[in-house]
Design goal:
With 543 residues, the chain is of the alpha+beta class. Helices cover 14% and strands 22% of the residues. Helix 2 (221-235) links the parallel strand 12 (183-186) and strand 13. The chain binds fe (ii) ion (FE2).
């Protein structure tokens, strides 16, 4: 458990007998092919709203021919109720057809409906579609989250990053389904459809450019449709919460970006007062989740930051003791790939997350696994979050195997340029790497790292304990031994002052400022580690 930490860093190297990557599934693959007749709903997916009284249902309608459709030509209806075949309620929603300017295929009609008036912890049965055609879907069901409470949590929360649409991705999703999650967090880089962008003659890299001679760069919507079908067995019954990664940027003509992400996914942006799909929050029982945008303004002076201050300030830890944050690129990362790439974001936001005692941070982007010791401002700190990178979903770009501390592998400061924001690389100011950009051994803040595909499952037990298990793909079809497992233990009493009573948002404070919230921690790190040990010795029983 984290109480036993900080742990000596451990590395498990990539096993060369495993696949380091795999090719994309072809559009002819049965998982990607259209599986309903014209006008019937497909790619059905669920997403949570901010609280359990409301849930989003989304789907796509694709007509006979793949030309742009009129969004008003097919209705957005959901029939739902608590008994199979008995739909006491109906809710209508909205529809859209983005990408009508594209020269290749546009998307179909994308529907989003928000169901309201739901009871927490209750199973609902639903059909979606257009009853006037008639073209309603088969019946599906889902269970709403428990109400915010320190005693109620979703059973298992799957965390997936950088999934893509390869045979490795399909192993990951098989494995996730086997682990039967109640909720899925997708920490960015979803479909890798942007690899299919037409180049527009701009020399952009693409793995399979379907329209290489098109005059402009265009997003390639069939891969998004294929991914929606591939995910439907999971997402039609388990809510999936997404956040954007760099592969969702999809730059197009006239500076248009993020169109697939923005139009295909419903997220509780209005409900969580962000009014932006790029960052939002929601509750799942006694856990408050904050999804942050790394590819939109994250500066202290920006709207995301002020929303985050407000959101953290409003969290009632007596109802939702756990606060979990997620965004795409990691701040703490000892792999060569993307090393210190989002250091600017860390310098802007880390102090705020630390002050409000965020418990866990999930990231992707690096195509491997890494779990950090509790850390703040690159210093071991028992009040820092546990950072975990799970960018190992299995996309076409292969697993990352090199570490920044490997001989000759320390990247040059401008090797890893972020797609958004500037370069804020730093040399360490203390410890074994003092004065250097890279460590010469695995950094002390990196507890465990392994190059393998997989996913994670978070099981929150109560307001103190949550079990985190990393599942490797190579273990999916045999004895499912955890690749990494740890009890994450909250000790808010050791990290005063408490959030609610003392929350003066640290406007303008940076991690490196002498007046940053680290100075508000009453006890020294050493004292707290000692207290942690005493608490552990004197009787906390976990299992
Ligand atoms: Fe990424």
């Amino acid at each position: 458990m984290t109480l036993d930490g900080p742990f000596e860093p451990v590395t498990r190297r990539f096993d060369p007998s495993l696949r380091s990557g795999s090719d994309d599934l072809l559009m002819e693959n049965p998982w990607l092919k259209k599986n309903v007749t014209s006008s019937f709903p497909e790619q059905i997916s669920l997403a949570l709203s901010t609280d359990p009284s409301s849930t989003w249902v989304s789907w796509v309608t694709i007509g006979k021919n793949v030309t742009p459709l009129d969004p008003s030509s097919v209705a957005s209806e959901v029939w739902y109720g608590t008994g199979s075949g008995k739909y006491a309620s109906q809710q209508d929603g909205k529809s859209t057809v983005p990408f009508r300017w594209l020269l290749n295929y546009s998307s179909g009609i994308i529907h989003h409906v928000r169901l309201e008036g739901l009871e927490p912890g209750t199973t609902y049965y639903f059909k979606c579609g257009d009853s006037s055609v008639p073209a309603m879907s088969d019946e599906y069901s889902f269970k709403t989250m428990p109400s915010p409470s320190p005693n109620a949590y979703p059973s298992r929360i799957a965390v997936i990053g950088d999934l893509g649409l390869t045979s490795n991705s399909s192993t990951t999703i098989d494995h996730v389904i086997k682990n039967d999650p109640a909720l899925v967090l997708m920490v960015g880089d979803l479909t890798y459809a942007n690899q299919y962008l037409t180049t527009g003659g701009q020399g952009a890299s693409c793995f399979s450019c379907s329209f290489p001679n098109a005059p402009i760069r265009e997003t390639y919507q069939p891969r998004w449709d294929g991914w929606g079908r591939f995910m439907e067995p999971l997402t039609s019954r388990v809510p999936m919460m997404v956040i954007e990664g760099n592969h969702e940027i999809e730059p197009q003509v006239n500076g248009i970006t993020f169109q697939s992400y923005l139009t295909r996914f419903a997220v509780p942006s209005e409900e969580s007062r962000s009014n932006s799909s790029f960052y939002y929050s929601f509750n799942a029982g006694g856990a408050h989740f904050i999804m942050l945008g790394a590819y939109v303004d994250y500066n202290i002076t920006g709207t995301q930051y002020s929303w985050l201050v407000d959101d953290l300030h409003r969290v009632n830890r007596s109802l939702t003791p756990w606060v979990v944050a997620a965004w795409h690129p990691p701040w703490y990362n000892s792999y060569n790939s993307h090393y210190q790439e989002f250091e600017c974001m860390r310098q802007e936001m880390e102090a705020l997350l630390y002050q409000y005692k965020v418990d866990i941070v999930f990231n992707g982007h690096v195509h491997a696994y890494e779990r950090m010791n509790r850390v703040y401002n690159y210093t071991l700190d028992p009040c820092g979050p546990v950072y975990i990178t799970v960018g190992d979903g299995g996309n076409i770009e292969k697993v990352d195997v090199d570490f920044a501390d490997d001989p000759g592998k320390c990247p040059k400061p401008d090797d890893n340029k972020p797609e958004f924001g500037g370069l804020c690389h730093l040399n360490f100011t203390s410890g074994p790497a003092k004065g250097k950009f890279c460590w010469s051994k695995q950094p002390e803040w990196s507890a465990y790292r392994e190059s393998s595909f997989g996913h994670g499952i978070l099981e929150v037990v109560n307001s103190t304990y949550a079990l985190w298990t990393w599942h490797r793909n190579q273990d999916a079809y045999k004895e499912d031994k955890p690749g990494d497992q740890i009890f994450i233990v909250r000790q808010p009493e050791l990290c005063s002052p408490t959030t609610k009573e003392t929350s003066n948002p640290p406007q303008g404070a940076r991690a490196s400022d002498p007046a940053s919230p680290s100075s508000t921690v009453i006890l020294s790190s050493k004292t707290m580690w000692l207290m942690s040990l005493l608490v552990a010795l004197f009787g906390i029983v976990v299992r």
